[in-house]
Amino acid sequence: MSTHRAPRPRKLTDVIATAQNVARLSSTKAIEILAPLTTKDVASRLPALIRQSVEGMSETLANARAGSRGGLVGRSFVYAVALPTFLFWLYAAFWESSRYVAETRLTVRAQQQKKAGPDATSMVSKLMGTGGDVSSQDAYIVLNYVKSRAIVADLGGRDYMEKKFARAGVDYFSRLGRKADAEEIWKYWLSHISASVDTLSGILTVRADAFLPKDALDVARDIVRLSEQLVNKITLRNRSDALSRAELEVTLSRQMLAEAREKTLQFRNKNVIIDPGSRAKSIGELMGKLTLERIDIVNALSTFSSSLSGDAPSQRLQRSRLAAIDQQLDELKKKLADTEGSDTVSAQIASYERLKLDEQFAEKLYSIAQTSYYRARQELEKQQLYLVTVVEPTLPESATYPKVVVDTVLLFFGLLVAWAVVSLIYASIEDHMV
For 153-163, how does the pLDDT look when each residue is reduced to its tens digit (9 = 90+)? Predict the structure, then answer.
């Protein structure tokens, strides 16, 4: 036996139809709200326009869900969309503190040598926004510094932030909390600072807002001042590192030269000689003289051998002198070169030439290191990176924030979308449970 149940109303279909009606009505009212945004009395007309929109959508909801449980949907719309929007409008229009914005534009330039001209690859990279421009890279360094905790500390930390952003008269939700920790102070700084880099031009745009025009101008000027100090510090560090390396090279080359000269001195003291080349020259001259004298003796012996006997005193004397000269020549030859001797002149000359070659090489290195050191000192006196202020920060004349109309309308439609999504999900779940 089967029983037939009466069909229940499809809540999901009804909710979807209701959401469509609300969307059509909200679009119509959005035109009415956004149309007068350029008029001067927009702030006074906004409450009436929002009220008309809410009343119209509430009436549509009531008509669409009359006789059913649509009251829950209508109440949820009022509490989730209409009431928060109205409260936010009250806060933004009558309580939220005005914020003034000071803008500055900076770029970093390097002192570089002139190039023949840009190549095609670099031009294409720039057009595509992927070029490795040095100025853009340096600008990104400043950008990261502006958004870092370091700049907050360099500005003065908590004292500076409280002086600029915790003044009397600033509303509770906008001011910096008195008990904020370092992390909260940094996040608050990021909420009042915006910075971006144009990859093509390498220009860094920084916008700082505060609750007084003078405070906004002071913050922008302090950012410029600290950014310039950062660029100068980077330049000085690079040049100081180069100077330190050059000074280290000079020290090492000087030590190498001193060691080479010390080895030469030890060689001279050990061999009791200043220059083996001079000694070889003097030995060669002595051998030449002895050789000439030997030739004379041999000629004399040959000449008088026919008239005098071999036992004649003069002949014996000449032969004795000849033997002494031959012995001297043999000894001088051994001093010049001998495969078995290590103290020969030839061995001394080889060792001495190696020592002199090492000494000359050390002198050359020392000269090069000194030249590099003097060049590094000259470069240290030049500023290689420059922070150029393209647009100086000026005193703002009118408040940029809050944008009451735009913020209220954006909040209204954001809440409306979120409410519609949640309502559809809820209706879908309830429909499947039936």
Answer: 999 999 999 99
